[in-house]
Amino acid sequence: MDRTLPFVVPLAAALAVAVSGCKKAAAPPVQALYVAAAADLSDAFGEIGRRYEKATGQSVVISFGASGLLEKQIAEGAPFDVFASANVTFADDAIASGSCLADSKALYATGQIVLFPAPGAPFAAHTLADLADPRIRKIAIANPAHAPYGRAAKQALETSGVAAATQAKLVFGENVHEALQFAQSGNADAALVARSLVATAPDTWSPIPPVLYDRIDQALVVCARGRAGAAAGRKFAAFVATPESRGILTQFGFAIPPGPALRP
Amino acid sequence: MIPERGESTGGGAAAAIDAAAKDSETLHVRVALTRAASGFSLDLAFDVPPGITVLFGPSGSGKSTTLAAIAGLVRPDAGRVALGSRAWFDASAGVDLPVHERRVAYVFQSLALFPHKTATDNVTYGMDRRLSREARRERARALLGRFHVSHVGDRKPATFSGGEAQRVALARALGMSPRVILLDEPFSALDAALRAALFEDVLGIAKDLAVPVLMVTHEKAEAAALADRTVRLETGRRRPDDSRQREQS
Amino acid sequence: MFPWEPLALSLQIATAATLVAGVLGVAIATWLANSRASWRDLVDVAVTAPLVLPPTVLGYYLLVLLGRRSALGHAVEAVFGAPIVFTRAGAVVAALVGSLPFVVKTARAALEGVDRTFCQAARTLGAGALRAFFTVQLPLARRGIVAALMLAFARCLGDFGITLMVAGNIPGETQTASLAIYDAIQEHQEATASKLAAALAVTAVVILYAVNRLTAAEHDS
What we know:
The complex is a heterotrimer.
Chain A: H1 5-24, E1 33-38, H2 42-56, E2 60-65, H3 67-75, E3 82-84, H4 88-96, E4 106-111, E5 113-117, E6 139-142, H5 148-159, H6 163-166, E7 170-173, H7 176-184, E8 190-194, H8 195-198, E9 206-207, E10 216-222, H9 230-240, H10 243-251
Parallel strand pairs in A: 1-2, 1-3, 6-7, 6-8
Antiparallel strand pairs in A: 3-10, 4-10, 5-8, 5-9
Chain B: H1 11-21, E1 27-35, E2 40-48, E3 51-56, H2 63-71, E4 78-83, E5 86-90, E6 95-96, E7 104-107, H3 119-124, H4 133-146, H5 162-175, E8 180-184, H6 192-209, E9 212-217, H7 220-226, E10 229-234, E11 237-238, E12 244-245
Parallel strand pairs in B: 3-9, 3-10, 7-8, 8-9
Antiparallel strand pairs in B: 1-2, 1-4, 4-5, 5-6, 10-11, 10-12
Chain C: H1 4-34, H2 40-48, H3 55-66, H4 71-80, H5 88-112, H6 116-124, H7 129-140, H8 142-158, H9 161-167, H10 177-186, H11 190-220
């Protein structure tokens, strides 16, 4: 057993760290509000959550992930009070499963797509027409089959008349993150991605006229079986609709849906 | 030097030996089994009265399988194994006493001394659990002393010589106060001098305990030196010219 | 600021899951090693099957099996007053399911590596099956079993997909180091991600090194 002593020591240290976590990870004294939010909302909702905490003293715990996954988890009993989806369909699904409240459904933002040319590409594309250029060999978009941003990208290509010229060049990423990574790594010459992904680096991309694609509605719902309760959830949802929060959303690349009251 | 009959070897050894002596009866063996995979089949019947019976035959004749069946490690297809009138196995009556209840000391060819335990702990392993720990260790010490291997008491089997290991194995067998002793080719790994010494040990045990001792070997010399009776095996059956009795000289 | 919380959580969950996987896995491995039942191999395949499924898929089925809508989920809530999914207990179950196949495979090999004659000798010496197992077979398989446990620990530390589905990614409660690293990368906090990844890697390396030394020592002694 002497040989194992040098290894017992670091393991014991690891256990000490583990045990130290015990006290901290105990349930917070004031019931926290649990929010499930789409992955691309991490910047925007992170900031909104912080402002809400400061304004109300209510602590907010946000779990970011793929909207589809989060919806399935909520259906199976995940204890979230608010679910901010990347599109409306999953919010509808959450309501249909009985986990979330139909009357709380609200559009909190509209997604936008932009054109991101790969750094160091032989030809930097700035418009959709540019994508027809033979020097653009691969264009990355999110998979239109299940990603709303992918569907919008495909639609924009069709409406602007370059679908035939670009069809063979399309490369699908599992989601907009992956599509962006294809372009960032140079494996694709350009990508059509969510503006929220690249909002903080405005010189690197070009906007695409929103008229070219159906509005990407992003909806949130308040859920019945969350830890803090529906009332607390509704308060947070109302905060997301305030001008202050809208400002944050705009800053991080989202557009605000038309109309003062955010109702679909 | 092996003590003469009547000479005291210390309370422990004598007590261990006495306990078994009261149980002495004849072992009745009748087993039949077939191994589908290899086509091997065993079908024999014989008795083992108190004293040394040698099970003699070439490799592959079924000697070890017979021992395993007696110990309960292998379940015969048919037959009966009984000590006196107590049946340990009876196919027709559906009796099959589990291994650990038969109290059969089985000294394997490889000895199977537990490598992670000292000689003393090996010897105490089979002793009555109702005895106190100290009492068991005392008996173990006495048994090891009887076989002149006290000096390995606190050592582990990896450090034993062939002869020491053999003797510790015998001490362990005695430690469990067995009703029957099975020895599987006990001397195969030893040189002539050690063999001779161990012959004495085994003969001594047989005399003291008066329990059935069934010893498997393929060496004629051993059989000649030790057997009170011989059972000859050949491919799973007794040879027709079998059952020679021999007076103990 | 080093994110200790996810790392502490990972270590806690991995320790608990390894203990349970160890006891359960060794029990199953013992049965597989010693049994002569004809359906033994079927059980082996069933236990190993989770390795074949993608972790997220496995996690999803586990979620459906244990979630609040399931019969099992209702039973758990009735007894404990709270669901098992999306809690630390759920994270332990997730890590346990991912590491059990490793424990069973490795422990079985270790137990089968113990010469049967030793157990047979123990039985003839009067030991029942349990006593023979605990005093002879298990101690002689000790090194392999410890290696199995350490492999399980490393696997539990690294679990991602199953934990994500069954326990969720709730910071402070079920966000293990693996999930936190993924989050940090998504949120462009590469520095945090790197620090956490390094800490996790160092822990895993120390453990694997220990496994190597322990299993190599067999041949040295």
